[in-house]
Design a protein that fits this description.
Layout (H helix, E strand, L loop, with lengths): L1 H24 L14 E5 L12 H16 L3 E5 L7 H6 L4 E4 L8 E6 L3 E6 L3 H15 L4 H9 L5 H6 L11 H11 L3 H12 L19 H6 L8 H19 L6 H14 L1 H14 L6 H12 L5 E3 L3 E3 L4 H21 L2
Helix pairs in contact: 7-8, 7-10, 8-14, 10-11, 11-12, 11-14, 12-13
């Protein structure tokens, strides 16, 4: 019996040793690299960087990911995390391939790469080749002659343009998206700084801006408007400015025959961008039927909008009823945009 126990113990020890040798000698299975011609998913989860006091950090990293995708010839699906969201577990499980965080990941199964002394790009350690590609690309990108200028566009932003005006500062740019504003403002017949003022009023140039009403992105596009103009990614600045400008163009076409001047047309369109086209059309129709001058913004503002601001249904005769809307918000919206436009015109001449 004692001899049998010794044999059993010996066999168990041999089996254990064999298992350890197998574990240590069999190559670890590594998945296909995220940069080898397949789609990648990335989440930008920056939390405390979601305001503009440190620059447009989310917008900058979105720009970097788009540049990476173009340089490495891959498709990257970018997720902008809401405040409180945590994608770390999703990264570990393989739901996403890359996670951008404000601090390095404290996990031995994750690899962290510092980017611009601002944030960390994090991957799983089962894709060492992909991580090497990421390191190589990042060094190459930072060595480009355009690197510092691109970085400055996103990080050297102002939180209050009126302070810039009071300081008498003249700049070369308003935002990283000036070229988009210039291009799409031409389709509207606008000064590009007026379109930039709309974007600043809507989002403070934050691509990750979201409203409680469901508007998203740089130009705060509602889902219904996005569908009408084939918006694929509401957080893509190029897409957002395109759709915002096309919607403003549609509003201008709608009010073209009802505005006395180009300035009145722009203000009708801006008011409709905020309050909805139906609300502003109702105000103009009311003025027309009530014998009030209807083709100037000043007349509508002074004589009609106060009626809609009372919170009650506005009636025209016995059969026509117009619902109220947030008039004070719309009045402030138009006024604020023109105030911003004046400031922007002094900042960038």
């Amino acid at each position: 019996m004692k001899k049998e126990r010794v044999i059993s113990t010996t066999v168990l020890a041999l089996l254990t040793a064999l298992l350890l040798v197998t574990i240590l000698t069999v190559p670890r299975i590594v998945r296909d690299s995220v940069f080898e011609g397949r789609d990648a998913r990335c989440a930008i989860q920056l939390g405390r960087y979601d305001d503009t006091t440190r620059g447009l950090i989310t917008g900058y990293n979105y720009h970097l990911l788009k540049t990476l995708a173009a340089d490495e010839d891959i498709d990257i699906d970018i997720i902008l995390a809401r405040r409180g969201d945590d994608y770390t577990d999703s990264l570990k499980r393989g739901g996403i391939d890359l996670l951008i965080l404000p601090a390095a990941a404290q996990d031995s199964s994750l690899l962290s790469l510092h980017m611009d002394s601002l944030v960390w790009w994090v991957m799983r350690d089962d894709d060492p080749e992909g991580f090497e590609v990421l390191e190589r690309w990042m060094k190459e990108f930072q060595g480009r002659s355009s690197y510092l200028k691109e970085r400055t566009l996103f990080l050297d932003v102002f939180n209050n343009p009126y302070n810039v005006v009071r300081a008498g500062i003249v700049r070369e740019h308003l935002s990283p998206y000036d070229s988009l504003f210039r291009h799409w403002a031409d389709t509207l017949g606008w000064d590009w700084r007026l379109l930039a003022a709309v974007a600043y009023q809507e989002s403070k140039f934050r691509i990750d801006a979201r409203s409680h009403m469901g508007a998203r992105g740089l130009m705060q596009i509602m889902e219904s408007t996005g569908k009408r103009f084939s918006l694929e990614d509401p957080y893509d600045p190029g897409e957002s400015v395109r759709v915002g400008a096309r919607y403003l163009k549609r509003l201008q076409d709608m009010f073209m025959s009802q505005a006395r001047t180009r300035e009145d047309l722009r203000k009708f369109s801006l008011a409709a961008y905020n309050a909805g086209q139906g609300s502003i059309k109702n105000c103009i129709h009311y003025a027309q039927y009530a014998g009030i001058e209807s083709d100037t913004w000043e007349s509508i503002k002074d004589n009609v909008l106060p009626l809609f601001a009372k919170g009650d249904t506005v009636c025209l005769g016995d059969s026509v009823r117009y619902p109220p809307f947030r008039v004070s918000e719309t009045l402030n919206y138009v006024e604020d945009i023109y105030s911003l436009y004046a400031a922007f015109s002094r900042i960038v001449e």
